[in-house]
Amino acid sequence: MPAPLGRKPTSLRDRDPSDPFRRVVELAQRARMILDVSTADLEAAETTLGPFDPTSWHFRNALHEAKRSWDRLRAEFGKATLEEALSEAPLTVLTLGAEGRDTPLAILIPIVGQTYRVQRVAGTELAPVQWRITRLTPPLDDGPYYACRLQDRSTQCDCAEWTYRIADENTRASCKHLAALTALGWI
Q1: Model pTM?
Q2: Quick one: pLDDT band at residue 15, thresholds 50, 70, 90?
Q3: Of residues 22, 33, 137, 136, the one with CA closest to residue 85
Q4: For the chain, which residues make up each domain, given as ranges?
Q5: Which residues pair with 149 in a beta bridge?
Q6: How many CA atoms lie within 13 A of 36 on its CB side?
Q7: Lowest mean pLDDT among 50-54, 66-70, 96-100, 105-109
Q8: Least confident span in 53-67, 143-157, 166-180
Q9: Under 8 Å between Cβ of 175 and 112
C-alpha cells in the first residue's frame, strides 16, 4: 500500500517487528546468511581436513539442515516473495565471535541476496569512516571492496558499479554496498 501523499514511506527498519513483510524480509535475510555461512564452513572443513573427517560430516549435515530450512521458507512464502525480500536493505546482522570480546571475529550482512563480511577500517582525515566489504561465498576475484564516507559527508566505493556508473555523475546515488551500509546507519 503506497504512503499517503506528502508522507515519506516508513522504512522496514522502522516498522513494527510483527509487520508481515518485515518478518518475511528478516527471515529470508537470516536464512540466506545461514545458508552461505554453512556453505563456507563446509568448504573450509573439506579443504583443511578432507571430505571424510568427522568435522566435515558435521558441517555437511549443517548445510543440509540450512537447505531444508530454505526450502521450507520458499514453500511457505514463494520464490518471488523471497527474492523481493532479499533485494531489500539489510534488516539482519549476524555477528560471529566469542562472548566477552571487545570486537567480533566477523560481522555479516546481506546485500541483494549475497552475504558479505564487513570490517571497520581505521579512518583517515579525508575519509573518517571506512569499511572493507568481502563477499562470503562464492568469493570474488576482484574483491574486497572499500566503502567510505568522506569528510564532506559524501560517500564512495571502489566497486565497479560505483566506479563506472555513479562516480562521474553529480548525484547522491549509491551502489548496493553503500546503500546497505547507509540503511544500517554505519556510513
Answers
A1: 0.83
A2: confident
A3: 22
A4: 12-86, 94-184
A5: 129, 155
A6: 22
A7: 96-100
A8: 166-180
A9: no
| List of E strands, the chain | 94-96, 106-111, 114-121, 129-135, 145-149, 155-157
Distance CA 84, CA 30 (A): 14
CB distance 103 to 133 below 8 Å: no
- Residue 170's pLDDT band (cuts 50, 70, 90): low
The DSSP output letter for 53 is S
Hey, which residues does 106 pair with through a beta bridge? 96
The angle subtended at Cα 32 by Cα 172 and Cα 120, nearest 5°, is: 50
On whether the CB atoms of residues 175 and 152 are closer than 8 A, the answer is no
Nearest to 119 by CA among 59, 167, 47, 186: 186
DSSP string, 65-93: HHHHHHHHHHHHH-HHHHHHHHTSPP---
- Hey, is 158 helix, strand or coil? coil
